[in-house]
Amino acid sequence: MALGKGTATAVLGALALGFSIVAVRLYFVVRPLVRTRRAGGADHNAPAWFGGPSYQELRPADRLAMAGIRSGAVVSLVAVLGIIGATMVSVAVAGFGGSQGSGEETVTVRVGDRVSFPQTPFPDPFGLTTMRVITVRSGPDAATRAQVQVCAASAGVASGPGPGDFQLRLAGQAQPVTATAGAIPGPISGGQCAAGPITFVAPAGSVPVSVVFPELGAERTYVWTIPEARG
After folding, report:
1. How far, in Å, CA of 210 to CA of 224, rounded?
2. pLDDT tens per residue across span 122-164
3. Residues whose CB falls within 8 Å of the CB of residue 113, separated by 6 or more in sequence, listed in order
4. Is residue 231 part of a domain?
């Protein structure tokens, strides 16, 4: 499945943070080896086994100075790591927020119209090229059914979107209703189309106003407005 820009940003941020942690750990492993090699037996750098003084043999003032230098280096590295981590987390959070908030694109059409899914920069996660809500009807069982047609990209798809991918907006209600059943047949060969009913169960007396396909992974939301719900 293709990743949306927000998800991709979060993944990149996590990878960058991981690389930063690995780099710091490598620094602490490599640094003593480099210093030992550069010391060449000099008293001020070489460890005890190269003829230099052990930590216990240093004067108290030298111990404090060495501890201060090392502590300063550790604090500096921790600060840099903290800044990098905070930056990456901020970018990741902003990316996730963008994929679900005001940054997403909304395409609004009427029931009966067909929409095309852009394949760049992010292809449709379901492998589809077009979708059309053909009709929306309310039945005697109080359920609302949308007849939905989808067409597959050249690679084909094993199945169409499921009922959980569709929502029904109701007049005067902020919370949409998620579909409870769907029957778009599959698999669908490349370049072919298939249609089936998507069923919503709305509260009694409610008035459907639109069918929504929130394609969050690609930062696009498609809305089909309903002129009227016919029985």
Report:
1. 5
2. 667 788 999 999 999 988 888 999 999 999 998 899 988 999 9
3. 132, 133, 224
4. no
Give dist(CA 188, CA 92) in Å, integer. Answer: 35
> Does 161 lie in the same domain as 67?
no
Q: What is the CATH number of the domain that holds 183?
A: 2.60.40.1240
> Does residue 26 sit in helix, strand or coil?
helix
> CA quadruple 17, 20, 24, 29: dihedral positive or negative?
positive
190 in any annotated domain: yes
For residues 5 and 219, is the Cβ–Cβ distance under 8 A? yes
Q: How, if at all, do strands 181-182 and 177-178 pair? A: unpaired
100: CB partners within 8 A, 6+ apart: 6, 216
Domain check: are 109 and 84 in the same one? no
Domain total of the chain: 2
DSSP SS3 for 195: strand
User: Could you tell me the residue range of the domain that residue 27 belongs to?
Assistant: 5-100
What count of other Cβ atoms lies within 10 Å of the Cβ of residue 59? 9
Q: Which of 123, 133, 197 is nearest to 154 (CA)?
A: 123
| 5 CA to centre of own chain | 7
In terms of Cα–Cα distance, which of 180, 198, 47 is closest to 56? Answer: 47
Residue 48 CA: distances (Å) to CA of 20, 51, 206, 217: 32, 5, 83, 59
pLDDT at 80: 60
Q: How confident is the model at residue 49 (pLDDT cuts 50, 70, 90)?
A: very low
